[in-house]
Structure formats: C-alpha cells, structure tokens
Write a structure and sequence with these properties.
about 325 residues; nine-stranded mixed beta sheet; about 20% strand
C-alpha cells in the first residue's frame, strides 16, 4: 500500500525542479506575446456545471469527462477545454459589449480517456480568444499571434494548416444531407477515414456528384492553389464564400511574410462541434500531433445568451516543452 501511494494515477505526473522552472519560463514568454497584443488575462474555474460542456454545445464526449457531484446533487466536470468556459464568462460579464474583447489564459485541462498515445490526461494550455469580431482580419490576427508565439520560443520551422468548415457544410446543404449524417461524415473525414465516409454516403440517397465532391475533400490539401482548385468543384454560395475567406486570410498572412508557413487542408474539420468557420492547427518537426489548435466559433456564445462571433487558439504547453527539450534545452532558458 505504501508503494502504491507514491505513484500518480495513469495519465498524470509530477513536475518539479529544473523542468518546472523551464515550464514556467516558457509560459511567461508566451503570455508576454499575448499581452503585447492587448490580450487581457482571464481565469475561469477548474470545474463547471456539466451543461457548460454538454453534447448540444458540441465539446468533449461525456465519457471523456471527469464527472462528480456537489452536495446539492448537481453534476460537475473538470474542464476539458477552456473555450466554453470563457464563452460562458463573457456572456455573463460582457453581455452588452459590442467592441472586440481580447482575452488570454493559462491553466490545466482534464480529459478522461484511455487512448492516451503518449499524451497526459492533465495538460497545461495557453490560449487566446478574440470575441466580437467576425472579420478576416481577426482570423489573421489570431494566426499571426500563433506564429509570433512559436518564434518567441525559438521555434521557427512550423507550419500552420488552415481549413474552413463552411466549405464542407455548404456541400452537405447543397446535396440535402441531414445533420446526423453530416456529423458522422465530419468525423470520418476529419480522421482521414475515406472508406468510412464512403460507406456513409453509399447508405444515403445521394448523387454520384455528391459522393465525388464530398470524398474529394480528403485530397484537398497543400498550398493556396488548393483553395483555387476547389472552386471548380462547387456551385453553392456557402462553399464559395468559405474559399474566398481562406483566400482573404492568406493574402493578409502572405503580406505579413508568413506565406511559406501557411498551408490549407479542407478535410480539417475538428472534433469540436462548436467550430463554425475556419479551423487550424500548427505543426513542427519532431512531433506527430498538432502543437497548437483553434478555430472560429461564431455560435457558441449564443448558447449562453450572447450572440457574438469569436475565434481563438490553444497551445499545448506540455507537448511544446517536451519538443524543446528534445531539440535543445537551452532554447527555453
């Protein structure tokens, strides 16, 4: 029993000494970048009511949440994700604010899954949220901050991949695909499961053109030429507007000198159902998963009573720290 008490549960770990010092320095460097862009710190509770992360909001599956009860019988959860918490907070304290709101945070999230693949169940994130701005300039601002944040920790060999959910949603609407099937297709395409997506489409009463256009999303990745080529496959205004939005964002980023760091992937659809427009992930050499994720969530705040557009991102500090350690520990001094 004594030996067992010395160990932590699966998926969590102790951090101390030099490693903790490096982690705190890394967090300060990243927060300094966000503060320089007028993002203001916000701290939300470590646990919230279950409904803040419920399935109708479209966040983490219920079986992956750490759930417990308070003395009044309310179901509470440890936060798996900061964005719904911040959306709730903004709706509560800034219900009538119409000017852009810039917030940033640093804290831990908790995911109760057995599919760890080297990841922790408790991880630290730093992120930013830009609320009340639905422009392409706001999208570009968030992506430029990601680039600046990574460069601030001497990580220059990154690639930011951008997609737009509206392209996929426009196709589903054009061909009359119902929401439940759309969500199933979204999961398959997002997981690069071509055969799973094909099986769903084969079970539906849709045209060959529909099947071809939706399945071809999996092959639409690469440079800005990918966005231009996709225009020839669609006729509906929603998908065309999505492609125009990506072009506008690229023009701003390219002018800022980030063109070589930007790629596009229309199959990036995200597991978080609250995303409504562009979604993006940042990658670098030596790490198989995204080091930064984010996107636009223009409908999420309305779940809490404030109809406002928003966009944000989160940097996974633990993954970033491990990567920098592997490369060169001095980079985080």
């Amino acid at each position: 029993m004594e030996n067992k008490l010395l160990h932590t549960p699966e998926g969590v770990r102790d951090i101390y000494g030099e490693e903790l010092q490096h982690k705190l320095k890394l967090q300060l460097k990243l927060l300094k970048v966000l503060h320089a862009h007028s993002y203001v710190d916000i701290q939300t509770p470590t646990f919230e009511f279950f409904d803040v992360f419920s399935s109708n909001i479209g966040t983490t599956p219920s079986n992956e949440l750490y759930k417990f009860f308070d003395k009044d019988g309310n179901t509470l959860v440890l936060r798996p994700d900061f964005t719904p918490s911040i959306a709730r907070c903004v709706a509560k304290y800034h219900i009538d604010e119409e000017n852009p709101i810039r917030l940033c945070y640093c804290g831990n999230t908790f995911i109760n899954t057995s599919d760890l693949q080297g990841r922790l169940k408790e991880s630290t994130q730093i992120g930013a949220e830009l609320i009340n701005d639905d422009s392409a300039d706001a999208d570009a601002e968030i992506i430029m901050m990601i680039a600046e944040s990574l460069r601030a920790v001497k990580l220059d060999d990154f690639q930011i991949t951008i997609g737009n959910l509206e392209y996929f949603k426009g196709l589903c609407s054009e061909f009359g695909i119902e929401e439940k099937d759309e969500l199933s297709l979204r999961e398959m395409i997002s997981n690069k499961n071509y055969f799973g997506a094909k099986a769903i489409l084969d079970s539906l009463d849709v045209s060959k053109e529909c099947k071809h256009n939706i399945l071809s999303i999996s092959d639409m990745f690469g440079s800005i030429d990918t966005v231009k080529a996709a225009r020839h496959l669609v006729r509906n205004r929603r998908s065309l507007n999505a492609l125009s939005r990506l072009q506008d964002i690229y023009n701003i980023l390219d002018k800022a000198g980030l063109g070589d760091h930007i790629s596009f992937d229309l199959s990036v659809l995200s597991k978080y159902h609250y995303y409504t427009g562009i979604v993006f992930s940042a990658y670098t050499y030596g790490l198989g998963e995204a080091i930064v994720k984010g996107g636009r969530y223009d409908k999420l705040l309305s779940e809490f009573g404030k109809d406002s557009p928003a966009i944000g991102f989160a940097i996974v500090i633990d993954s970033l720290l491990n990567l920098l350690y592997k490369r060169e520990p001095k980079k985080i001094q």
